[in-house]
Amino acid sequence: VPDIPGVCGIVDGSVLPGCLAIEAGQSAVGDLFLWFAAQLTPDAFGSTPGAKLDALDRAAAALAPGASGLLALDWNNGNRTILADARLSGLLLGQTLHTTAPEVHRALVEATAFGARMIIDRVRAYGIPVEQVVTCGGLAVKSPLLMQIYADVLELPLVIAASDQTCALGAALFGAVAAGAFPSAAAAQQRLCRVRDLTYQPNPASVAVYRELLTLYRQLHDGFGTPAWNGSMSAVMKRLIAIREARRSR
Fold this sequence. Notes:
There is one protein chain. This protein has helices spanning 30-39, 49-61, 101-125, 138-142, 144-154, 166-178, 185-192, 204-225, 236-248, and strands spanning 9-12, 20-23, 71-73, 91-93, 133-135, 158-161, 195-200. It is mainly α. It has a domain at 28-128 and 205-248: ATPase, nucleotide binding domain (Nucleotidyltransferase, domain 5, 2-Layer Sandwich). The strands form 3 sheets. A 3-stranded mixed sheet has the order 5-6-7. The longest helix is centred in the middle third of the chain and has 25 residues, at 101-125. The radius of gyration is 20 Å and the shape is globular. The termini are far apart.
């Protein structure tokens, strides 16, 4: 496997014996949503950050992709992969006097999905196929909005691990192998690891919109994140307005 620029590490056996683990990640996802809910969302959406997040998710789910005219960079805590630059910061483009909190929330969710897509595209560019995403943790279970947006942006099916505590399950799995309860990690996986009976599939209509927004996201990503970029951003705002008008007219 070749070195992949911007990826944190490629480690033989770090997750499973005989398998290479490609380690990458984003500096903020859930923390980004919590920041917006706790610091900038009106109390009309709830009395606690958690209640506000639930209300924002419900309201944002009713919005069509691209209809807000917003595009964000998910760098409020810097960028881990693929730019590896802690001195980058967040950006929200396309705001007007009519922009609402659910629209901003959705734009932030979309931005994290675009950030994940940048990672997957970088891995693929170096010959590593990515065909399915298995998710785990709180957001995967709590936010159908996030899961569907990720499926649409990544253009991949998303499944959810059955266990609510996947880190603890992994530790228990290797402990069971070490104790001799299973002959191998693969055998323990076969017995202990499951996914839920729910798969988020890409929505073709949403995929088409997100492809166009991803092109604009790449411009912002490269323009603000890479010193060698020499493109132009002069059309980005007006393109966002055109997408917004087209989506709202339907």
